[in-house]
Amino acid sequence: QAFQRAGGSYYPKLQSAVPFTPVTGSRLLVRGGLDEDDRKIVSSALARGLIACCHQYNVSSAHVTFCRGEEMATFRELGYMPRLGMQYHWENRRRGTEEKYASFKEFEMDLKQSRRKNVRQERKRPAKDGLRVFRATGDDIKPDQMADFYEMYVAQTEKKWGRDYLRREFFDEIYETMRDDIMFVFAEQEGTGRLVAGAINFIGSHALYGRNWGCLPPESAAGDANLSKLFRSMGVDTGAQMSGGFKHLHFECCYYQAIEAAIELGLDRVEAGAQGEHKISRGYLPVETHSAHYVADLSFQSAVSEFLGRERREMMEVMEVLTASESPFKT
Predict the structure, then answer these.
(1) CA atoms within a 13 Å half-sphere pointing along the CA-CB vector of 169
(2) For residues 15 and 18, what is the distance between their CA atoms, to the nearest angstrom?
(3) Can you tell me the distance from the alpha carbon of 207 to that of 287, in angstroms, rounded to the nearest whole number?
(4) Cβ-contact 34, 275 below 8 angstroms
(5) Confidence tier at 232 by pLDDT (50, 70, 90)
């Protein structure tokens, strides 16, 4: 909008990213085996090539998002403007050591006493609400579970006024081609076996990536008009479900189960994406993400650079304050 108000046209633009995947990775793809000097030369040539494409195709700008921190030096040298972002990650490392956790209980012992108590209470709540939470990956994932999760995903986006940009065909495709790299966390009603909520994670070589979550509204979860009465008889607030599920169920499905799985798989971390300061008190601390931006219009570069510099200072301050004030870990 600012670009348009200044008389420019923001679109079309060039974008270097993995679609719908806010995960840090290499954006300058250089083959392995090169020494450091040659790697720098090739990386610089690639970044220059992107600038040349901007002018060749007469587009406003080039944006390289979620690139690695070590790539930023190359982009900076060529006039790209850096932008700092923030996500929440859980690190599989015992405090003060380089050793991975052996169990979830060991992770709990690194927490302050008050937070440890809260975590344990939150993890017990689904069972009290008559739910069984379980994980499924690979051939343990059933086709009907994929269908159920798609319904959860759509229901959640509708509740949050979001956009269900992932179609049913997407879930069918990943089931057929990469289910060994998928980990679902589902919550089902004891007795009926009906799935009421779920979260999808993708298993990487070093990290578990938490992505979408969904919770069905009461009538969909039960399949009959008596579910609201059932929820009330169990002491579960129906309104709470409509706003995102049973009490604490989101925390169990999206955060605690992911931590437990990462420990069992020996992964380095769980990446839970951006937004949600409530993640901090559950062990997911703020971490930096990086992007680089080239604006072809020189007259507009200074304004963008000034904004990004101010935003960066504010972001660093926010991260420092959040980590210091909200971290659940013992000091």
Answers:
(1) 1
(2) 9
(3) 14
(4) no
(5) very low
From CA 149, how far away is CA 147, in angstroms rounded? 5
β-strands 61-67, 131-137 pairing: unpaired
Q: What are phi and psi of 8, to 5 degrees?
A: -100, 180
Q: Name the token pair of 138.
A: 């690979």
Strands (E), 156-268: 182-189, 195-203, 207-215
- Report pLDDT digits (tens) over 47-73: 999 999 999 999 999 999 999 999 999
For 152, 159, 189, 233, the CA distances from 228, given in Å and listed in that order, are: 18, 18, 13, 9
- What angle is formed at CA 236 by the lines to CA 230 and CA 239, rounded to 5 degrees? 100
Please count the residues of the chain.
Answer: 331
Other Cβ atoms less than 10 A from the Cβ of 120: the count is 12
Per-position DSSP letters for 262-305, written without gaps between them: HHHHT-SEEE--S--GGGGGGT-EEEEEEEEEEES-HHHHHHHH
Any idea what DSSP says for residue 139?
G
Q: How far is CA 113 from CA 16, 117, 120, in A?
A: 44, 6, 11
The pTM score is: 0.87
**Exposed / middle / buried, residue 313 (Cβ in 10 Å: 0-12, 13-18, 19+):** exposed
Which amino acid would we find at residue 230? L
List phi, psi (to 5°) of 322.
Answer: -60, -45
Residue that the structure tokens 């300061």 belong to? 277
With beta carbons less than 8 A apart as the criterion, state whether 245 and 197 touch. Answer: yes
What number is the average pLDDT over the span 71-100?
96
Structure tokens at 208: 């578990």
Q: Which helix (H) or strand (E) holds 65?
A: strand 61-67
Q: Nearest 5 degrees, angle CA 225-CA 151-CA 175?
A: 140
